Amino acid sequence: MSSPSxxxxxxxxxxxxxxxxxxxxxxxxxxxxPVVWLLGAITFIMGTSEFVVSGLLPEISGxxxxxxxxxxxxxxxxxxxxxxxxxxxxxxxxxxxRRSALVAALLVFAAGHVVSAxxxxxxxxxxxxxxxxxGNGTFWAVGAVVAxxxxxxxxxxxxxxxxxxxxxxxxxxxxxxxTAAGQLSGWQAPFWMLAALAVAAAVVVARRLPADTTRxxxxxxxxxxxxxxxxxxxxxxxxxxxxxxxxxAYSYVAPLLTERAHLASAVVPLxxxxxxxxxxxxTTVGGRLGDRRPYTTLIPATAVTAAILGxxxxxxxxxxxxxxxxxxxxAAGFANNPIVVGEVVRIAGAGRSLPMALATSAFQVGxxxxxxxxxxxxxxxxxxxGPSLTGFAFALAALLPLGLLAASHRNxxxxxx
Length: 417
Fold this sequence. Notes:
The chain is mainly α. It has helices at residues 34-52, 57-64, 68-71, 73-92, 98-117, 122-151, 156-185, 189-208, 220-225, 230-250, 253-260, 268-290, 294-315, 319-334, 337-348, 353-378, 386-416. Helix 7 (156-185) crosses helix 15. Mean pLDDT is 84; it is low at 1-25 and 213-217.
C-alpha cells in the first residue's frame, strides 16, 4: 500500500486485514460488510439526482418559462454546490457521529428535492438544487469514510468501487427511468421520487448503521493536518485531470455519434447505455485490482483512456467503431475512480472526512472543466473532433501526477523493506 510520504507510514495501512494464518488476506477474498452495499445503494439515488436533470431540460424550461440554457444552470448549480459544499459541510458536521451526519445529509438532500419540485420559478429551483448538492456532498464525505473503515485497509478500494458503482448504475438505470417518469408525469415526478427514496434511506441508515460509528478524531486541526501531504494534492490533480478527460469528450457524445459517425439519433441512448455498462465493468475491475496494485492499474488505465480518446479523434467516423470506442472509454476511464479515492484514504489516513470531501470537489472540478473546454473546442475550427481532442490532452496530462505518485510509492516501499 502507498504511504502518505516517504518518511511516514500510512496509518490506514498499518494494520492490514489478516486471514486465519496471520498473513494478509487478498483484497478480492475479503467479504464486504452489509453497510458497504447499503451505502452503494444510496449512491444510486445520489447519482440519479445529479444527472437526471439533463434529460428533462426541455420540460423544465417550458414549465418555468425560461430558456433551455437557463434551465441548464440547474446542472451547474448542483456541480458548484458539490464542489464547495462537500468540504464546508465536512467541517460543519465533523463533531457529529457519522450515523447522525449521514441521516442529516439524506434529509437535507430530500428537502432540496421537495423545494425544487414545489418551485414555480428558476430561482427557487436553484435553491433546491444547491441544498440537494450540499446533502450529496456531505453524504459522500462521510459515507466513503464509513465504507472504507468498515471494509478495512485490505478492501478499502473495493468498498469505494461499490459506492462509485452505485453512481454508474444510476446512469444505466436511474437516469433513464427518471427521465421517462418526468416526461410522462411532469418534470417534478423524479424529484418527488428521489425525495421519498432519500427519506426511506435515512430511516434504514438510522436503524442499520451501528450506533458506535463515531468520529475517530473530531479535531479540525487533525483534519487539516492530513491535507499537508503533497502526495494528496497530486491525487486531487490526477482526479480532476482524469475526469476532465472523460467528460470533455463524453459531454458531447450525442453530436459525435449522430453528426460525425452518422448514427441514427434513436440509437444514441443505446450507445450511452453501453458506455454505462462499460463504466460499471471498469469500476468493478478497478476496485478489485486497486487494493493490491494501485499504480500498476492506474497508469495503464489512464494511458488506455488517452489512447481511446485519441482513437475517437482520428477514427470515430464509422458508427460501429464509434460505439465500440465509447463503450471502451467508459470501461477504461471509470476503472480509475475507485482507485484514486482509495489512495485519498491511504494517504490522508482512515476516518478523515475533509480529505474525502475535497476528493469529491476534485471530481466536480474535472467534470465542470472538461465539459466547459470541450464545448469551446466543439465551436472552434476543430469542430466535432474538438471535445475528444480536449479529453485526450487532459488524460495525457494526468499521467504526470500519476507518474510522480508511482515513483513516491516505490520509494516508500523500498524504504520500508
